[in-house]
Specification:
The chain is mainly α. The protein has a domain of 42 residues. Helices cover 35% and strands 0% of the residues. Helix 2 crosses helix 3. It starts with 25 loop residues before the first helix and ends in a 16-residue tail after the last helix.
């Protein structure tokens, strides 16, 4: 059995919304990062797993899309939010 070399036209090193497997846009990743909604609510809204939501919020994924953003009220009780 012989195998031929197959070439694909996928751009190298694609990430974020440019990845062929992406279900989200950069803007949606920013919305998720900044949102106060629960992981489950965001998962249902965007059609991705809660693990994807968690990765975005922990900045383990979608780093370029969330670069420079800061969730101002993280770690504070809701009563102290500005």
């Amino acid at each position: 059995m012989s195998h031929s070399n197959t070439s694909f036209d996928y751009p190298p090193n694609t990430s974020g919304q440019n990845s062929r497997n992406s279900k989200l846009t950069d803007e949606q990743a920013r919305e998720i990062y900044m949102s106060d909604e629960s992981h489950q609510a965001l998962s249902d809204k965007y059609g991705v797993s809660t693990g994807v939501i968690s990765g975005i919020r922990r900045r383990a994924t979608w780093l370029k899309a969330t670069e420079g953003l800061k969730r101002a009220n993280r770690g504070k009780p809701k009563s102290e939010w500005t």
